[in-house]
Protein 1
Amino acid sequence: MNNAIFITVRNGSTRLPNKALINFNGMTVIEYIIQRHKNAKVCDSIILCTTENKNDDSLIDIAKKNNINFFRGSETDKLERWKGAADEFDVKYIVTADGDDLFCEPKLIDLAFEQFEKSQPDFIQANGVICGAFTYGIKSDALRKACEIKDTSNTEMMWVFFTQTNLFKIEELQKVPMKFYRNDIRMTLDYKEDLDFFNAIIKKGWSGNYLTLDEILEIIEKEPYLKDINFYRQQEFLNNQKNKTILKVKDNFSRE
């Protein structure tokens, strides 16, 4: 297997408990995300990556129901969980898709896979792109290297092991439409207001088909108040991420 989308999800959320199982648009949140990512074209497989915690059994049932692969691994060590999935399914290139990013854009995922084939980066990020529209791309060999150098099992905020160690070839996602670079829209599910935002967008635009990011932006342009439903939560979200970010590497690996 060459290209795989890793949907990273667990039922251990505290701000919005069991958010992956909340009803959204006639299905659970995680089912909606799975179905959305089936619109990616440059992809060999979708793999749901969850934990060995019994509380996450329901997520495995949903993966089976939706005919996608799944992997269970560490609850706190996201890097090791991904490494286990990459090894089990022989994945070369990974694009991660968080289980709380309901509008993560399949077209951007396709761009990442195409970029891997063209320039062979270790890690792809998309700074400035709408929060929740794209997560990261990771070459599996780089993922294995990150697992070798880390000196912690807390890798929830995992990007720093790639971006701040000077060991990897980092690239920005290329060919992204300029209109996708926005710092005033929040598309991730952590708070009730986020759910209100997603429901409002779906109510305005759902026609039974995949709602593209272009269409989502058209809805917001027509009714800009929609982005204000939850955006005031963004700084709190960013502060929380910063406080949880840990970079610990083994002494025998230099970052110079």
Protein 2
Amino acid sequence: MSIQGQRVVVTGASSGIGLVTARELAKAGAHVVLACRSEAKTQPILEDLQRQFGPNAASYLPLDLSSFTSVRRATQRLLSDGTPIKLLVNNAGVASQRGLTEDGFEMTFGTNHLGHFLFTLPLLPLLKEAGDARVVTVASRAHRDARRIDFDVLRDSTPTYTGLREYAVSKLANVLFASELAKRVAPHGIASVSLHPGVVATDVWRRIPEPFAKLSKLVMISEEDGAKTTLHCCFSDEVRTANGAYFNKSRVETPSKLARDPALAQKLWERSERWTDLRWSDIDLD
């Protein structure tokens, strides 16, 4: 897929594989919207991309996925501008952050899934307008560790010490969301896929307590290697015929049995609509 001269959006682009992804997209001639929480952290990245690839290479969009208010404000800014979006990369995520979001959801689930759900849906008309657009959601093989989604506890503060169980649930939600979204947007010329980037040495793991952090780092790969599957999903024509698929090592891979459960995907979607007060019927794709 060519993105020369197109607008693309990358969440969590100020570090890690999000930064590598943004840099490669800018290098390919796109205007990259860096949708990030911290302006201070993003500003040097923005200036570097503009210096390397031109003043129109990138722009900054304030986005805190743990806050529905921030997410709605960000989508409204993009909608008000009206420029079509060729590619949306839902990359941002947290791990081992305990507590509740601003809106009262378990921190990891509320940020990794609900934040992206609320961010993605309003932008679909801009993706449709771009034509042959796609949504790429960075999940994880950790989704395989989730044994279920207990919808009754997602309004409670993170119960476990490491937060890894909650991370697995949030990544399962990412895969389910991407596949369910694919079914809904395929008739409108939009593709949706999810992926496992590898166990990458990024800031997302900075809150994991010892000794878990030391053990994890023994098997982690570089940010550059971690971004390869994301970039494959951004550029490869294979995505057109693999709508709804889950990728690992730049190849389609069968996700967990739970991730392939259409009833669970539907239930998650319905709960997400209710929790974010955003209905599919509110999205004008006609």
Protein 3
Amino acid sequence: MNPEFVVGDIDVAEICIVSFFLFFAGLVFYLRREDRREGYLLEADSTGAIEAVGANWHPTPKTFILPHGGGVVYKPNDDRDRRELKARRIAVWPGAPIEPVGDPMQAEVGPGSYAMRSDKPDVTMDGRNRIVPMRLSHGFEVSPRDPDPRGMPVVAARGGVAGVVRELWVDQAEMLIRYLEVELAADIAPGGRRVLVPMTMAEVQGRRAIKVAAVTAQQFAGVPTTASPESITRLEEEKVCAYFGAGYLYATPDRLEPLL
């Protein structure tokens, strides 16, 4: 008997190939179940009805213990986004576009949408607030070889001046400037109100000014503020970035028009 054959005409190579395909099929099944921990069950686009899927295609709930006393979460769970949709569908067929209802900058749809993250500040590995004003950071400063945005005017879309940069907010984990703290001009928000501008949506124009093309000067008055002047929560980050994101499409009527 040929030693390469195990039983009858079944040899070692055939067993290896079949074993590989069985393992690979099991791996795909496992991964497809695991990737359904968030965002599922699916909702029908036109009716909002929950998609009916067999129980075997969804994983059993898993417990995640958050660091630094952040609590416990379970995934998957039955949490749904209960926020009112401030938009209307322009057609009845699935996948039809939606358009904002009311002030598009406040509709929280399209580029202005955001996730309901935890309303607590993100923290570093050692438990410190991750994003803080530079005055509260540990050893952060602006290199004398680079422009210091503090004191520079903020020029908005259409050329209006929204205010002056008063402080920089830094990411103590990534060692980056995350936000510019802008004191708004008196004609926009009396009383020296301050708002945060994402650094990724600002352009430092040499040592002369900061350009923020996302919104107009008057729209700076609508930027969401933080509950604390010394920290920003994950949810507040979402809202601030979403507001400026909305401006790229909704700030002026001409931005809604097609290019061709």
Protein 4
Amino acid sequence: MALNYRKFFLCILALLFITAVLIWSAVFQSGAASILSNVGGQDVVKVVFFDVGQGSSVFIEAANKSQVLIDGGPGSQVLNKLGKEMPFFDRSIDVIILTHPDADHLNGLADVLKNYKVYQVIDSCIEDPGGAYQEWLRLIEEKEIERLCAQAGQKIKLSERAEIDVLFPLQSLKGISVENTNSASLVIKLINGNSTILLTGDAEEATEHQLINFNIDLKSQILQVAHHGSKSSSSEKFLELVAPETAVIQVGKNNRYKHPHQEVIDRLKNAKIFRTDLDGNVEFLCGLEKCEAVR
């Protein structure tokens, strides 16, 4: 008799658990449907700014499941992040973009190249003797991945309406050695209809001035704040032209650089600010009219 009561009790617990799962699933689906409705239509692009500590990594997935990874953060955390965003059976990424070969953007990409089938990589193609960069090049060659040297004017089509435009470098940097790798950082813009996100890597003020002087269209709804909120970036004029409604700062908790700097926070006074050290992953759904934060 005691055994029957126990079975009955376990059945009740199981029923309650299943009911709770169904209720919360309906709640989340309702929330997602509401956001999709707000951003307008089916051609929605998901953009996730990963919390990888003091570093940067951004995952983009179009409605047709085209996937782009921009930078890989400072270590293997990116694999865990990708595993939560992509189904377990999906082991391929269409494009990886490396903004520049600094460790906090590059190091995690070696693990991605080893664990995923990657069809194309895009970077500045500068000369850099660093061990992690040499490993990056070795893996690209070993796995016979197509490599494209970034230059302004290039477009990466994600879907019929969505694309990534390369804004910087203004001319090819292939084979060039640079003293400050931040000066060679890619600046790219995600466009999906009227939705726009400006992704700046570690671009500094000198790069911002070049973009301004060449009358590049910088205006964007969302700005990835350059160089983790360093005061060497995000000049007043640059922010005035971008005019972001939302700004995302990818930064590690209690980092030794004291990023983000207060001057930059003050200059972003007109934007809603998300920070990965405070908010964790920051995700947006971008329809043809606007982007909306999921969390």
